[in-house]
Specification:
The protein is an alpha/beta fold. It contains 8 helices and 8 strands; from the N terminus they run E-H-E-H-E-H-E-E-H-E-H-E-H-E-H-H. The chain has an 8-stranded mixed sheet with strand order 3-2-1-4-7-6-8-5, with helices on both faces. The protein starts with a strand and ends in an 11-residue tail after the last helix.
């Protein structure tokens, strides 16, 4: 395994991107970098402040044509052979990176998914539902990993061999699924690292929850995924 690049995408996340960066900093492998791609001035200012203090951190300009275009811009800029994908509104556990990277010792492993953990309160309907969904998907990934079956990486935290990704379609709505399918279709295995936890605050209003699920369902309805022979889960999970 070569050098590692952490790729964080952020949009209007000035309040949370610092925590996302700080969670990775203490566990960076030697020679690793953190690349943050974001378009808005407020988030850029936070990232620039971290870049001034930590040589491993740098900002990449966002072309402002959506998340797939942002990913493509960052993928051209990263230096690592392994790219770890995450978002500016989540944060990883203090021991998340080693188990996420360990499976790449096997040359047949092309990508590894982390494990989302809901930090939403259980005493609300949507909060309870978020815990139920994340636990259901966790069990599904465990079972499929044990059986050596295809699984879709979690967009909140996953890693991939850089050589397997040349371009993310700019009309993609489920970038994590597109990348997962492309890795598997090239004959590589996708593993699950349940110890690589990433903490996620899920939507707190029904409107935001519905918007998220409609986007996810629309992403899986994309021709590329709809026609793929790879299958894992319902679009609504």
């Amino acid at each position: 395994m070569g050098d590692v690049s952490i790729l964080i995408t952020a949009f209007r996340e000035a309040a949370t991107v610092g925590r996302a960066i700080e969670a990775f900093l203490p566990q960076l492998p030697q020679g690793a970098e953190i690349v943050v791609v974001c378009p808005d001035p407020q988030t850029i200012a936070v990232v620039d402040d971290y870049a001034a203090r930590y040589p491993a951190v740098r900002h990449v300009a966002d072309p402002q044509r959506g998340k797939p275009a942002a990913l493509n811009a960052a993928l051209k800029a990263v230096r690592g052979d392994i790219v770890v994908f995450s978002d500016g509104d989540v944060f990883v556990a203090k021991d998340a990176l080693p188990p996420l990277l360990a499976p790449f010792a096997d040359p047949q492993v092309g990508a590894v998914s982390g494990c989302p953990v809901s930090v939403s309160p259980r005493d609300t309907v949507l909060g309870y539902w978020s815990h139920l969904l994340t636990e259901s998907i966790h069990q599904m990934r465990l079972a499929r990993d044990d059986a050596g079956q295809f699984l879709v990486c979690s967009g909140y935290l996953f890693a991939c061999r850089r050589s397997l990704i040349t371009h993310v379609p700019e009309d993609a709505l489920a970038e994590d699924a597109v990348i997962s399918h492309r890795v598997a279709e090239q004959g590589y295995r996708i593993r699950y690292a349940p110890e690589a936890r990433v903490f996620v605050k899920y939507p707190t209003s029904y409107r935001d929850w519905l918007r998220q699920k409609v986007r996810s369902a629309g992403g899986f309805a994309h021709d590329y995924l709809r026609k793929s022979l790879m299958r894992m889960r319902s679009d609504w999970l």
